[in-house]
Write a structure and sequence with these properties.
By secondary structure, this protein is of the alpha/beta class. It contains 10 helices and 11 strands. Strands 1, 2, 3, 4, 5, 6, 8, 10 and 11 form a 9-stranded mixed beta sheet that branches.
């Protein structure tokens, strides 16, 4: 078990929150039961509703460690998470609302942090609901890879499968071994040592949606050791920009341009 008391702040950004959030909460409670001597705060940042709904009051009433922030407008994913940042905790866990934690996930993560004080950011093994493994770790992207991955028809993806697999680090990432310092990790579950997140100043507010996690993790790996730890496991329902309509495709493209302008272009 954890040897000394630790404080964790968990931030979850929601957009018109619904009852599915209780799946996350049920898994979180089970995960917390495996951890001793920790203090947890979970902050829900609501980007959709303009005032608290019954479900928000229910979260705050049923879980004493929960609080809700109503932004009053859609700030975007990264800017909303930044509202939950504080300098008086040991760790900050950034979660998507569609994550289900394995019962041992938090215990395993905290034990890893204790054993590896050099680790400033931890990424888990994520699976789809059907059990298939997701690849949250990525190599630095190219424009071609992102466009093919996000929008190309199936036959083109099959033709360029080797290139997509390289981007997804299929040749390096497995479900057994820790992997140090992948260039990029997904924002659906980012477990930070809080001092590192504070030094990074959180997400870049210039990104409204898409690539804010790519940018943050890319900056993190230049400042600290980042670890993919498959002993920390979650289920992630996930999403796909190309299936969400033209508005999301345009937001994806705009954020992609911002990322490459900031961090360097790679066409192929």
């Amino acid at each position: 078990m954890i040897e000394s008391a630790r404080t964790i702040r968990i931030s979850v950004v929601t957009f018109f929150i619904d009852d599915d959030i209780f799946n996350l909460m049920d898994s979180l409670i089970k995960a917390l039961e495996r951890c001793k001597d920790i203090s947890v705060q979970i902050i829900f940042i609501e980007n959709g509703f303009n005032e608290k709904q019954q479900i928000h009051f229910q979260l705050e009433e049923n879980y004493s460690f929960c609080s809700v922030i109503i932004t009053g407008k859609n700030l975007g994913y990264g800017r909303a998470h930044n509202l939950a940042m504080t300098n008086d905790v040991d760790y900050h866990l950034i979660l998507n609302p569609d994550i289900i934690l394995d019962e041992s996930s938090l215990e395993q993560a905290l034990q890893f942090f204790n054993l590896h004080p050099n680790c400033g950011l931890l990424s888990p093994l994520a699976r789809w609901e059907d059990g298939q493994r997701q690849f949250l770790c990525k190599r630095y992207p190219s424009v071609l890879t992102l466009l093919v991955r996000g929008f190309a028809p199936t036959w083109i993806k099959k033709f360029l499968k080797h290139k997509l697999d390289l981007y997804n680090m299929v040749d390096q990432i497995d479900d057994i071994n820790v992997y140090w310092n992948p260039p990029i990790v997904s924002g659906c579950f980012m477990f930070f040592r809080n001092s590192v997140l504070q030094e990074l100043k959180g997400f870049d507010p210039d990104f409204f949606l898409y690539f804010e996690d790519t940018d943050l993790s890319y900056r993190a790996v230049q400042q600290t050791d980042v670890a993919y730890v498959p002993q920390v496991q979650v289920i992630h329902h996930g999403g796909n920009a190309s299936k969400k309509g033209l508005k999301h495709i345009l937001m994806f493209s705009s954020s992609m341009l911002k990322f490459f302008n900031k961090n360097g272009w790679r066409l192929f």
